[in-house]
């Protein structure tokens, strides 16, 4: 197994901006790190389920993904645009609807419409893991490892949002616009890969 390439791939892919990281930073900026931890844990749990599914059903998924990739990509992009609209239209107060989005369940469910996460799992497991490891224990271990890295990246982005909370509170509307534009950019870049 090319260990260095594997770790470079998972760290670069996990720590670059995407729906998980942008949402975590936005929530931490608005609600604080402690309240955003539940969202991060949900992301980690959902990511773990996706990694397990990718591990144990990789052969089936590779033949099935082309059939659902288009629909998943559209759903994921639409959801990211919805999140962007929610961010840009949110008030400076702590509204209860945004609290619902900053939950364990929301973080977990986000993984099932996050094409970046799904394709990341399929790519990492089929390219770096399955050619070298095929036992159930090793696939479980790698699923835990990938989910942990995903959780850590989301948590790091949350810390960034929390640390800058005071500074960004003065520029909340500008910050929300930038975060929304990044989500829209993510959605557009995912859609452009279809063509």
Gap between N and C termini, in Å?
32 Å
Overall pLDDT score: 82
Number of helices in the DSSP assignment: 10
Radius of gyration from CA coordinates: 17 Å
Compressed to H and E, one letter per element, the order equals HHHHHHHHHH
Assign an overall shape.
Answer: globular
User: Would you report the number of β strands?
Assistant: 0
Number of domains: 1
Question: What would you call the quaternary organization?
Answer: single chain
Report the portion of residues in β strands: under 5%
**Uncertain spans, ≥5 residues at pLDDT below 50?**
none
Task: Work out the helicity level.
Answer: over 70%
Structural class: mainly alpha
Largest sheet: none
Describe this structure in words.
The protein is mainly alpha-helical. It has one domain. It is built from 10 helices and no strands. It has helices spanning 3-15, 19-31, 33-56, 58-89, 96-101, 104-110, 115-129, 136-163, 165-170, 172-192. It is globular and about 50 Å long. The model has no long low-confidence stretch (mean pLDDT 82).
Show the helix and strand layout.
Layout: H1 3-15, H2 19-31, H3 33-56, H4 58-89, H5 96-101, H6 104-110, H7 115-129, H8 136-163, H9 165-170, H10 172-192
Helix pairs in contact: 1-8, 2-3, 2-8, 2-10, 3-6, 3-7, 3-8, 4-7, 4-10
Brief write-up:
The protein is mainly α.
Attribute tags:
mainly alpha; 195 residues; 10 helices; 85% helix
């Amino acid at each position: 197994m090319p260990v260095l390439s594997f770790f470079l791939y998972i760290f670069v892919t996990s720590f670059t901006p995407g729906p998980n990281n942008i949402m975590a930073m936005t929530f931490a900026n608005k609600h604080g790190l402690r309240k955003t931890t539940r969202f991060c844990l949900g992301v980690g749990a959902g990511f773990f389920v996706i990694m397990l599914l990718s591990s144990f059903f990789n052969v089936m998924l590779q033949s099935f993904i082309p059939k659902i990739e288009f629909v998943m990509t559209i759903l994921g992009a639409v959801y990211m645009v919805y999140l962007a609209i929610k961010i840009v239209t949110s008030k400076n107060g702590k509204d209860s609807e945004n609290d619902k989005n900053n939950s364990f369940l929301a973080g977990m469910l986000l993984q099932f419409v996050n094409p970046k996460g799904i394709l990341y799992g399929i790519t990492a497991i089929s390219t770096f893991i399955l050619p070298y490891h095929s036992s159930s224990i090793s696939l479980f271990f790698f699923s835990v490892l990938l989910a942990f890295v995903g959780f850590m990246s989301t948590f790091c982005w949350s810390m960034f949002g929390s640390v800058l909370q005071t500074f960004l509170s003065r520029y909340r509307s500008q910050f929300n616009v930038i975060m929304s534009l990044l989500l829209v950019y993510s959605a557009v870049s995912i859609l452009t890969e279809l063509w």
